[in-house]
Amino acid sequence: MRIAQVSPLYESVPPILYGGTERVVSYLTEELVRQGHEVSLFASGDSVSKARLRAPCNESLRLKKNCIDQLSYHFLMLEMLQQELDEFDIVHYHVDYLHFPLSRKNKKPHITTLHGRLDIPDIHPLFKEYREMPVVSISHSQRSPIPYANWVGNVYHGLPITETRYNNNTGEYLAFLGRICPEKGVDLAIEIAIKCGIPLKIAAKIDKADAEYFHREIKHLLNHPLIEYIGEIGEKEKSQFLRNAMALLFPINWPEPFGLVMIESMACGTPVIAFEKGSVPEIVEEGITGFIVNSVSEALETIQSKLPAFNRFLCRATFEKRFTVERMANEYVKLYQQEASLNHQELSKNYQYKAKFLE
């Protein structure tokens, strides 16, 4: 198929450091190319891909100095795409609802994977207006705030099997990976580590929007001798960071749409200890790829009583069954074919109607 992948421009594809959505776009794009599809990637100019790259800006916007209006580059990208629409069988958007007005008018087959949280009241009127737009969830729990949307599929994220290395040795520290922000629960991860007396390594970025929270709530907690703040790390460092950990702490307090770091940890054979929010019950298999808890005390008990007997080989094997990039790409291709076929049927009906009207 001739496929357009439309990525956010905030990070390169793949990201140099942190960037969940752009990383998934990268994995998917490269796998589609490997399978023989003709793929064009609309992304920042510092992206690296075997697909044909179409770039509205030279570098990713988070790293672009003096970039004030990031939205302008996204609209430029959408215009570039509009001018090339006839070249594609399907367009796969990863930029939320930005394209909805255009897609309603151009009728090109498309799907949109919604990567973010949907429990925001402000977006409900918009999704009700554009309720015909075919959207894809990354977990079933993600759908709950807008059940009326035109959900055409649910596709869990996937990783290349070769991206991470399995380690059967139990690590000597707990790991926290992601962003330092209120909803990710780094404060709870620190509390868990201190109470159980196990070192915690924190590899996380701090967005500008969360800088005040970090300085007010978190910075002073990093002074404890068991806590080590590493900062933001890249893909190469991430694999080593996770596979050498005893467990990944994921004490979220928000409706996580997916949580890519969970399957990155599973791929290393490292168990996930996660709070029961959002996608967690769909992603973590109790006792097999990790443990689901509801409090700090439950996390402590799990670390002390269940972690020593954890089977890291089974964890890796389960990842290979459920969360590979090949499985993700295959499921998306089925959706592409489904939407392209529906669009063809609709165009055929319209043609037949017009022909009959003109008789």
TrEMBL record:
UniProt-recorded Gene Ontology molecular function terms: glycosyltransferase activity
Protein name: Glycosyltransferase family 4 protein
Coiled coil: none
Boundaries of every Glycosyltransferase subfamily 4-like N-terminal domain copy: 18-122
Annotated transmembrane regions: none
Residues in Glycosyl transferase family domain copies: 168-296
